[in-house]
From TrEMBL:
Residues 5-149 form the PTS EIIA type-2 domain. This is PTS system, fructose-specific IIC component. GO terms for molecular function: carbohydrate:proton symporter activity; protein-N(PI)-phosphohistidine-fructose phosphotransferase system transporter activity; protein-phosphocysteine-sugar phosphotransferase activity. It comes from Atopostipes suicloacalis DSM 15692. The chain crosses the membrane at residues 313-335, 347-368, 388-411, 423-443, 505-527, 539-559, 565-584, 605-625. Its main location: membrane. One of its GO terms (biological process) is phosphoenolpyruvate-dependent sugar phosphotransferase system. Residues 302-625 form the PTS EIIC type-2 domain. Pfam families: PTS_EIIA_2, PTS_EIIC, PTS_IIB. Residues 175-270 form the PTS EIIB type-2 domain. It is found in: Cell inner membrane; Cytoplasm.
Length: 638
């Protein structure tokens, strides 16, 4: 298969009509849908949006390469578009983009397709290729340029095979590098090529390991690492790092590999990079590795570690909560002494008993890798036994993680023949001993006191303060609809609920989380001229999702029209959350939506009314604010 089989003439926009980043992305996705390469606009467009959110694909020098790999793609394809006037694409160099390549890769794309896409990524680093494309103004001339460049690339591969082993008798400096990006399609290979080209200019030998969709290529060997004069890791995802333990490593985003290749090489050779501290015996198992920062403390690393704990805790919350809800529902029919009620209640309680240990265990593992798992879970259990609650669990997780890093660094110079003993014996015993002592005698009692004080404060909140807190929690549920702000509100309410059994704030977040999808569904019925036929059909499912407390149903609509959808949803959710507290409602279960509310909620009529009022408010704001479909099409927003 040739590159021209993927960059087809019917997929070219010469020129594109769009003048904004959103418009050019929409226009290119529509082209994929029109030609049958993609069968679901919303699914693929969301994949593109998610990729842009993680890191802009505006590469600089007037080039943008948006890409996604998902189930909506039926035929691996590339849309090529030109916009001579330029589009502000949040490019890495701040300059407008004029040439656009949108890659649509099948979810099960084979090695041939992925190799072709990797070749395209490398070609975009060739200035002659870019100049030729800029001059080409017809689909035929573009394909001719691509075909000629592909032939030249294959010739170069044949005539100059890559260096696969470390040099043994050369005076040239030797640098090794790893490149990887979240999707493994574009930036991975562009960073590889940029580093190789710059190394050639500087007279430096280099070997680059790529961790892309094709898998790991040109894997670095122990000999490479031992002989390297400098090490560069330019990545946007987790890669094995333990093999570099004790070495100076330049760790940067993959975009720096493309745009700051000379700086990275010079820094690596100058010996100015920090020493990476990790476990050298864990070099091939990324699940055992410490977090990407190598234990370096930063707000981003703290957030990532916290989210690791929360995301792993949520299945226990949801499954255990629903089982408890079922038990309370059955209690009304069979009585509290029935084996049915007792069994369901014990099952749900068993899942709930793991919440804080799981939270702490996975926070610790995110920081210190698998060696931290014992001390993390045990620290969480000690937090429970000390009545330190949710806050104590958070402290236990971070404490266990950083204690593990300390122990690993302290033992890194042990003889290699004792490495196995270190992993299976010393790490778990020492980390458990230190974490356990600190939790049992120091942090457990401290945070038990803090937890009790906080709960006492919440109990003394006046009605006005309680309503305000309910409004804040409800609004937070709608801000990012399943993202970190949403999870923060949910985690706070879960903490109160697990510590006290008080479901007041659980009611606020449940009401707030139900309103966004319900409002979108209702708006699609009442304001039909504001939604396309496809949007109206998909919006109806949000009635079910909203009633079930699945806020994520609103995400596709928020992605397409973030300002209107998010603001209208947040206002309605804040009103609903506040009303739930004003009317003294409560939900004694962490999930289930309307089904839990009707079966178990306190002051159920007021709960339903809070949901209804919030939904109507959001619906009215969104319905009147949103433009009719004809105006949206005229302005290019759909």
């Amino acid at each position: 298969m040739k590159m021209t089989d993927i960059i087809r003439q019917e997929l070219m926009l010469l020129p594109a009509q769009a003048t904004t980043k959103k418009e050019i992305l929409d226009e290119m996705v529509h082209k994929l849908v029109e030609t049958g390469a993609v069968d679901d606009f919303d699914t693929f467009r969301k994949g593109i949006a998610d990729r842009e959110e993680s890191m802009s694909t505006g590469l600089g020098d007037g080039i943008a390469m948006p890409h996604a790999k998902n189930t909506a793609v039926k035929k691996t394809s590339v849309v090529f578009a030109k916009q001579p006037a330029g589009v502000d694409f949040d490019s890495l160099d701040g300059q407008p983009a004029k040439l656009f390549f949108m890659i649509a890769a099948k979810d099960d794309a084979n090695e041939t397709h992925l190799a072709i896409l990797a070749n395209l990524s490398k070609l975009l680093m060739n200035k002659d290729f870019i100049e030729a494309l800029t001059a080409a103004n017809t689909p035929e001339s573009v394909q001719a340029v691509v075909s000629l460049a592909e032939a030249s690339l294959e010739t170069e591969k044949t005539e100059a095979p890559e260096e696969e082993v470390a040099p043994t008798d050369s005076d040239e400096p030797y640098v090794i590098a790893v490149t990887a990006c979240p999707t493994g399609i574009a930036h991975t290979y562009m960073a590889e090529d940029a580093l190789k080209n710059k190394a050639k200019e500087l007279g430096v030998k280099i070997k680059v390991e790529t961790d892309g969709s094709e898998g790991v290529k040109h894997r670095l060997t122990k000999e490479d690492i031992d002989q390297a004069d400098g090490i560069i890791v330019a990545v946007g995802k987790k890669v094995p790092m333990g093999r570099f333990s004790g070495k100076r490593v330049v760790e940067r985003p993959v975009a720096d590999g493309i745009n700051k290749s000379e700086e990275l090489i010079q820094t690596a050779l100058a010996g100015e990079a920090p020493v990476y501290h990790g476990s050298s015996d864990e070099e091939t198992d990324t699940a055992d590795e410490p977090s990407e920062s190598g234990g370096a403390f930063s707000l981003q690393s703290v957030y990532n570690d916290l989210m690791s704990g929360v995301s792993n805790m949520l299945p226990f919350v949801i499954a255990g909560g629903i089982m408890l809800a079922l038990s309370f529902l059955m209690e009304g029919f069979v009585g509290s002494d029935s084996p049915i009620f007792v069994g369901l209640n014990e099952i749900g309680s068993a899942a709930f008993s793991f919440l804080i240990p799981v939270l702490a265990g996975y926070i610790a593992t995110s920081i210190g890798g698998k060696p931290a798992i014992v001390s993390g879970f045990a620290g969480g259990a000690l937090a429970v036994s000390a009545d330190a609650g949710f806050l104590g669990g958070l402290v236990a997780g971070f404490l266990a993680g950083y204690v593990t890093l300390f122990v690993m660094r302290a033992l890194r110079k042990m003889p290699k023949n004792l490495a196995g003993l270190r992993t299976i014996l010393l790490y778990p015993i020492l980390t458990l001993f230190i974490t356990g002592l600190l939790m049992y005698y120091l942090f457990g009692p401290i945070f038990a006191s803090i937890n009790i004080a906080m709960l006492n404060f919440l109990e003394t909140l006046g009605t006005g303060n309680q309503v305000l807190l309910g409004a804040i929690l409800g609004g937070m549920m709608a801000i990012d609809m399943g993202g970190p702000v949403n999870k923060a509100a949910y985690a706070f309410s879960i903490g109160i609920f697990t510590d006290t059994g008080d479901g007041r704030f659980m009611a606020a977040v449940m009401v707030g989380g139900m309103i966004p999808p319900l409002a979108i569904a209702l708006a699609s019925v009442l304001f039909k001229d504001k939604f396309t036929e496809v949007q109206k059909q998909s919006a109806l499912t949000n009635f079910i999702l909203g009633l079930s407390f699945i806020t994520e149903g609103a995400i596709p609509f928020a992605a397409a029209d973030p300002l209107r959808v998010i603001i209208s949803s947040a206002i309605g959710s804040a009103v609903g959350g506040g009303l739930s507290q004003l009317w003294l409602t409560s939900v004694p279960a962490p999930h289930g939506g309307i089904f839990t509310m009707l079966a178990l909620g306190d002051n159920r009529l007021m709960l339903m009314l809070a949901v209804l009022i919030g939904t109507v408010i959001s619906t009215i704001i969104l319905g009147f604010w949103k433009k009719p479909v004809e105006e949206q099409m005229a302005s290019g927003t759909i």
